[in-house]
Amino acid sequence: MQKKDKNIILQNLKESSAEWINGQGPLSDIVISSRIRLARNVEGIPFSPRAEQAELKNIFEFSQQIVEKDSLFKDSNLLLLDELTPLESQFLVEKHLISLYHAQESHSYRGCIFNQKETLSIMVNEEDHFRIQYLLSGLQLKNIWKLINKIDDEIGKKVTYAFSEKEGYLTSCPTNVGTGMRASIMLHLPALLMVNGINDVRKAISKIGYVVRGFYGEGTEVMGSLFQVSNQITLGLSEEEIIDNLEKVNQQIINKEQKAREELLFNSKNQLEDQAWRAYGILSSARIISSPEAMELLSKLRFGVGLGIIPYPNLGTLNKLMLLIQPAYLQMLTGKDLDPLNRDLHRAALIRNEINH
Amino acid sequence: MLCQICKKKEAIITFTKIAGGQKIEIHLCNDCASVYSDKFSIFPLPQFNINDLLAGLLNAIDLYQKEGGVIPGKKIECSNCHLTYDKFKQSGKLGCSVCYHDFREQLIPLLRRLHGNSEHVGKIPRQSKGKLNKIRKIKQLKKELQELVLKEEYEKAAKTRDEILKLEGVLKKKNAKKG
Predict the structure, then answer these.
(1) Using the beta-carbon criterion (under 8 Å), do A206 and B18 form an inter-chain contact?
(2) Does A331 lie at the interface with B, CB-CB under 8 angstroms?
(3) Which long-range contacts (CB under 8 A, 24 or more apart) does A290-296 make?
(4) Which of A287, B83, B141, B177 has the most neighbouring CB atoms within 10 Å?
(5) Closest by alpha carbon to A291, among A321, A268, A270, A266?
(6) From CA A135, how far away is CA A323, in angstroms rounded?
(7) Does residue A178 have a pLDDT over 90?
(8) Is the CB of A290 less than 8 angstroms away from the CB of B40?
C-alpha cells in the first residue's frame, strides 16, 4: 500500500461519517453505541511513557508494517500524531478515534490506526503500546468481541505480548491489568433523567460497580442525557463474563428507560410533543447556538424521534450532529480557527443545514 | 492544601465526582480550575480521577503494611526500568512488565482492592497458551478430585489423580528444559 499524505487522510476523515453513529444497530433508540478496548504491550519494551526514543520508534514502525502488509488492515490508515496540529489532534479526539491523553501527551511516535468505517482504531504508543478499540452502533458487545479478538490474535502472531500467568496482560495502569479490556455502552436516557433526576441515575449505576461517564469520555460531565457505562474490573473475570455482566446491567437500565418512556407517553404526551417540536423549531432556525444548548436540544429531539412523536430527522443524523458540533470538528469543517462567537454562528448554520434537509 | 494540578498554589475549589460508588474529590487553585473548566465547554475535567483513586489506595495499603510490621522483599525501585515506588504512587502508572514482579508485595493488595481479585482467568496469548491451559486444566482436575473423594467415588478419583500427575510431569519437563 502506498503511504498516504496526512492531509489527504484528514480530508477524508472530515467528509466521512463513522459507521457506529448511523443509528441502525440493535436498540438504537436507547443505545447509541457499544465499544470494546484492549490494552496490549510488547514484551521486553518499557510501557510507552518510560520507553526510549528508539523503542517508541520500533513500536511505531511495527504499526506501519502491519498497516502496509497485513490484509486485516488493508483499508486502514496510520497517522503520526507528532505531525498534527493541536486542532487536528483534538479533531481525532472528538471523532472518538483517540483519547484526550493521547492527543496531549508529549512523547514522540504516537500514532493512530483506523479503518475506513472508523469502527476500528488502534492508538499506538498511548500509555500502552497498543490500545485496540472497536465501536459498533447499538447494543453489540458480543459481535465486537468476536471482531476485536481476531485483530488481537493477528497482532499477537507478530509480536510477543507482555503477559504473566498470574496477572494476565500487563498494562501501564494497574486498573487495566488482566484482560486489559474495557467494554462500554453509550446510552441515551432522557426519560429516566426526567423521572428520576441525574443523581439517582448515576447512583443506581455506580452502585453496581460500573462507571458512568459523559458522552465525551472519562472526566466529562453528563450532557444531552447521554451516559457511558463501562466495566471497572479487568482482572479475575474472563472477557465473556465481563461482557455478559455489562450487558445484563445495561438491559436493566434499558428496561427502566423503556418503562419511564411508556409512563411519560401515557401521562404527559402533550408536553413531550411540545418539547420535541420546540427543540426542532429552535434547531432548525437558530442563528447562534452554544454546544451545551445544542446538545440539550438535540437530545430532546432525539427523544421525540425515538418515541415516534416526531418523524424526522433520523437517529443517524442526530447522532452525527452530536459529534459535528464540537469545537475542533467544527473548525476543521470550516477550515479555520474560530472565536467562540463565530463557532456558535457556524454551529447554528451546520445544524440548520443538516436538519432542514 | 496545595492545588493537585500545579502543586504550587493554594487549592480553593473542590470538584466532587462519584464513580464506582467512590466519592473522589479534586482540589484545585483558581487558575487551574478556570483552565480546566473553560478550555472546552464540553471537556470540563481531564482524567486524573483514576490516579487520585490509586494514590489514595496505595497510601492506605502502605499504612496498613507498616502497622503489620516489615515486609520482606519489598522493593523501592524497579530493577529493569528504575521506576521508583514513590514515583509510581504519584503517577499511578507502572514503567514496564518487570515492575509487576518487583513491586509485587505492594501490588497484590492493590489489585485485590481494585478488582476484588488478583488472578487472571481470561484470554491467553498464543505464546503462553500450551503451558497455561495445562495449569488451568490441573487446577480444574484437582477440584474435581476433591469432589470425587467426598462422594467416595474412588475409582474415578484414581483416574483423575493419574491425569493430574501426567500433566504435572509434562510441565516439569518443560520447565527443566527451559532452566
Answers:
(1) yes
(2) no
(3) A290/A344, A290/A347, A290/B41, A291/A325, A291/A326, A291/A327, A291/A347, A291/B41, A291/B42, A292/A223, A292/B41, A292/B42, A294/A321, A294/A325, A294/A347, A294/A351, A295/A215, A295/A223, A295/A224, A295/A322, A295/A325, A295/B42, A296/A223, A296/A224
(4) B83
(5) A321
(6) 15
(7) yes
(8) no
Pairwise CB contact (< 8 Å): B50 & A218: yes
CB B36 within 8 A of CB B46: yes
Residue A258 corresponds to which amino acid?
Q
- d(C-alpha A172, C-alpha A148), whole Å: 21
- A164 forms beta bridges with A168
Give A-chain residues touching B49 at CB under 8 angstroms: 218-219
Please give the Cα distance from A293 to A287 (Å, whole number).
Answer: 13
Quote the cell numbers at residue A32. Answer: 447509541
Contact B123 A179 (CB under 8 A): yes
Please, how many CA atoms are within 13 Å of residue A316, restricted to the half-sphere of its CB? 10
Q: How far is CA A288 from CA A38, A172, A274, A334, A344, in A?
A: 41, 44, 22, 16, 5
Three-state secondary-structure class, residue B24: strand
Give backbone dihedrals phi and psi of B36, rounded to 5 degrees, phi first: -75, -20
pLDDT band at B91 (very low <50, low <70, confident <90, very high): confident
pLDDT tens for each residue of A228-265: 888 888 999 999 999 999 998 888 889 989 999 999 99
Instruction: Kindly state the DSSP code that residue B151 receives in the 8-state scheme.
Output: T
Cα(A121)–Cα(A19) distance, integer angstroms:
13
Between positions 25 and 84 of A, the ones with CB within 8 A of B are 41, 43-47, 49-50
User: Is pLDDT of A146 > 90?
Assistant: yes
Distances in Å between the Cα of A174 and the Cα atoms of A127, A192, A235, B50, B87 are: 12, 34, 10, 10, 14
Q: Do A174 and B54 touch (CB under 8 A)?
A: yes
Contacts A129 to B, Cβ<8 Å? none
Beta bridge partners of B16: B25
pLDDT per residue over B34-70, tens digit each? Answer: 554 433 323 333 333 566 667 777 777 776 666 555 5
The verdict on whether omega for the bond into residue B109 sits within 30 degrees of 0, i.e. cis, is no
The structure's pTM equals 0.81
In this prediction, residue A269 carries a pLDDT of: 93
Exposed, middle or buried by CB within 10 Å (0-12, 13-18, 19+), for B140? Answer: exposed
Q: Of B82, B51, B75, B111, whose CA–CA distance to A174 is shortest?
A: B111
- Helices A141-158, A239-285: crossing angle, 10 deg rounding: 120
Measure A46 CA to nearest chain B CA, in Å.
Answer: 4
Per-residue H/E/C for A234-252: CCCCCHHHHHHHHHHHHHH
